[in-house]
């Protein structure tokens, strides 16, 4: 894929992986394995797009498991996984997830977490604008910790993507051993209020949270007034990253080493009850 306009970044070549749907533990293990390979210089910086099946509720790295209504999740066929990244709960269904793995020394990741969010979000903005979505980066909307809820999409953080004042993309980042993993959720269609059924709210709280979510967050279908297939969204976002971050994206797949590490991480961490119950 051709690179586009530069924004002060030196040209770079990244790997592009477009995956199908996988269960939550597999998706988190693959992201983790890619980051490890990038840190060891065994793989180039990587942009990955993927989906989830079955539906999965992901918790932030240190989010309490007590936030989850585990009985309701089991009844609805919703898995629960804990992300390596921070943030609050997301129900992954009917969505496209992006993940970026690169080194902290890359100019696209320099600065603190908020600054690197801003830089990497330029790719999301450019891609969504290719789909003719009116999007901006949220600035100064981070709520104090005491005011947060268990739901990621309830309020945008600094430099997350909004449309018409409603959150469209929820992202989280993890830094480890000189590497950066940032991944995020773009709901394509469906009722964003479904997540409320998976969390430990009273009936009254559920109704209030459902109403707030529908007011404060949006799907891509709501933003555009039409449904866009996963593949078309992935193509637009990849072009946006290439344009905004001065990249050449080369299609690829996981290496044998990444596949082996992902299988190990899935078994020993992301599908393990000890990891899910760690907070």
What is this structure's SSE topology?
Blueprint (H helix, E strand, L loop, with lengths): L11 E11 L1 H16 L6 E7 L3 E4 L10 H7 L2 E4 L7 E3 L2 E9 L9 H18 L5 E2 L23 E3 L2 E11 L2 E9 L15 H14 L3 H5 L5 H16 L1 E5 L4 H15 L2 H4 L3
Parallel strand pairs: 1-2, 1-11, 3-4
Antiparallel strand pairs: 2-6, 3-5, 6-10, 7-8, 8-9, 9-10
Helix pairs in contact: 1-7, 3-6
Walkthrough of the structure:
The protein has one domain (12-276): BirA Bifunctional Protein, domain 2 (2-Layer Sandwich). It has eight helices and eleven strands. It is globular and about 55 Å long. The strands form two sheets. It has an eight-stranded mixed β-sheet with strand order 7-8-9-10-6-2-1-11, with helices on both faces. Strands 4-3-5 form a three-stranded mixed β-sheet, sandwiched between helices. The N and C termini lie far apart (42 Å). The chain has helices at residues 24-39, 70-76, 113-130, 203-216, 220-224, 230-245, 256-270, 273-276; strands spanning 12-22, 46-52, 56-59, 79-82, 90-92, 95-103, 136-137, 161-163, 166-176, 179-187, 247-251. By secondary structure, it is of the alpha/beta class.
């Amino acid at each position: 894929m051709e690179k586009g306009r530069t924004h002060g970044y030196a040209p770079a070549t990244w790997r592009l992986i477009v995956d199908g749907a996988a269960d939550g533990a597999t998706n988190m293990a693959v992201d983790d394995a890619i980051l490890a390979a990038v840190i060891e210089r065994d793989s180039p910086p990587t942009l990955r797009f993927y989906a989830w099946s079955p539906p999965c509720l992901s918790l932030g790295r240190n989010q309490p498991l007590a936030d989850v209504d585990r009985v309701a999740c089991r009844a609805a066929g919703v898995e629960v996984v804990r992300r390596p990244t921070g943030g609050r709960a997301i129900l992954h269904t009917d969505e496209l997830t992006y993940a970026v793995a690169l080194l902290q020394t890359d100019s696209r990741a320099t600065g603190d977490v908020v600054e690197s969010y801003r830089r990497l979000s330029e790719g999301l903005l450019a891609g969504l604008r290719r789909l003719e979505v009116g999007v901006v980066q949220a600035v100064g909307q981070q709520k104090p910790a005491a005011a947060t809820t268990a739901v990621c999409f309830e309020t945008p953080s600094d430099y997350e993507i909004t449309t018409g004042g409603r959150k469209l993309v929820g992202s989280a980042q993890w830094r480890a051993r000189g590497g950066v993993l940032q991944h995020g959720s773009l709901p394509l269609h469906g009722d964003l209020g479904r997540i409320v059924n998976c969390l430990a709210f009273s009936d009254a709280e559920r109704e209030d949270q459902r109403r707030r979510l529908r007011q404060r967050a949006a799907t891509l279908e709501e933003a555009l007034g039409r449904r866009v297939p996963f593949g078309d969204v992935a193509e637009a976002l990849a072009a946006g990253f290439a344009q905004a971050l001065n990249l050449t994206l080369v299609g690829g797949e996981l290496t044998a080493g990444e596949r082996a590490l992902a299988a190990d991480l899935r078994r020993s961490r992301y599908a393990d009850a000890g990891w899910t119950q760690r907070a």
